[in-house]
Amino acid sequence: MSQQKKRALITGITGQDGSYLAELLLEKGYEVYGFIRRSSTEPLLRIEHLVLDKRVSLINGNLRDIATIEEALKESRPDEIYNLAAQSDVGVSFDCPEEAWEVNCYGVAKLVDSAMELKTVPKIYQASTSEMFGETSPPQNESSPFKPVSPYAKAKLRAHQRYVVGYREKYGIFICSGILFNHESPRRGKNFVTRKITHSLAKIKFGLQEYLELGNLEARRDWGFAGDYVEAMWLMLQQERPDDFVIATGEDHSVKEFVESAAGLLGMRILWQGEGQNTIGVNYYNDKTIVKVNPQLYRPSEVKNLLGDSQKARTVLKWKPKMTFDRLVESMVLADLTLVRSQPQM
């Protein structure tokens, strides 16, 4: 007699992580349901191949609307819930703090409370973030103090403390947080700095853009590959007991280093001139300025360095990152080269 397939509900399935997670779960034989927010843009861009093949079932809804959450749970009857939906742009959260709180904190409460009303409470994964560490000195692990500086991080921390750790201790449900450090891919949105870099430099390569504007070039981040990190999410829900895990590579690089690596792959060597907000990046081969600092792109409160210690995940989950920093940058550059080359030039 064949074993019944596990059922998973992914909120935020149209995002970078959601698309990779959906592919992973389908490979493992899951029935996958995606909870998506209606949009006038192209929300299915990253999962179009899965939708066209009818491999995932989509349910319209919003973490602000409890009725749609309840309907999604009723329809999907999940064994596992992966809550990846969020107001995910740290910079935007300073401009729209109320939205960050409504989605990243109160939306988690609605989802978890609704799940607890089910006859069998599913295992729940909550997407937390390294931004919760904020001003804490690196390296950061599960025992490091949280010192968030953005509305995004503060809302994520409240959800982590109250609805993950708090509910786990009070009600004994299987809920855990993945405290993921920065993770990128060719599917990253162009509003995020890594993808902004690779896409803009590809356009500069083809003469479609003059220069790239960035904020703090000295900010350092622990950058990994999103496809590796979704495997850690899945592993967390396969454990006997719920727990929280830092997921990171253990290497940090500055924004400036990311630019240098991406530019080098495109045949551009960056020479830096000036300091701080007056820094410019000049292409050594033609003396053109291709990188400028725009002070308006600095965040009101900047996190200087996030560097994760994922020893617990490596030991307990048997997880480790597979893609190196150099290979990650290369994959993003090659994807954007292909994208820019394929687009009609005006």
Word description of this protein:
The protein contains eleven helices and 15 strands. The protein has 346 residues and is an alpha/beta fold. A seven-stranded parallel beta sheet has the order 3-2-1-4-5-6-11, with helices on both faces. It has a four-stranded mixed beta sheet with strand order 8-15-14-13. Strands 7-10 form a two-stranded parallel ribbon. Helix 1 crosses helix 8, helix 3 packs across helix 5 and helix 5 runs parallel beside helix 6.
Provide the low-confidence segments as ranges.
none
**Structural class computed from helices and strand pairing:** alpha/beta
In terms of quaternary structure, the protein is single chain
**Total count of helical runs of at least 4 residues:** 11
Major sheet details: 7 strands, parallel
Physical arrangement of strands within the biggest beta sheet: 3-2-1-4-5-6-11
Reading the helices and strands in chain order gives EHEHEHEHHEHEEHEEEHEEHEEEHH
| Form type | globular
Sheet-strand content, in percent, reads: 15-25%
Can you give the helix content as a percent range? 25-40%
Rg, nearest Å: 20 Å
Number of strand elements: 15
The whole-number mean of residue pLDDT values reads 93
Task: Report, as a whole number of angstroms, the end-to-end distance.
Answer: 60 Å
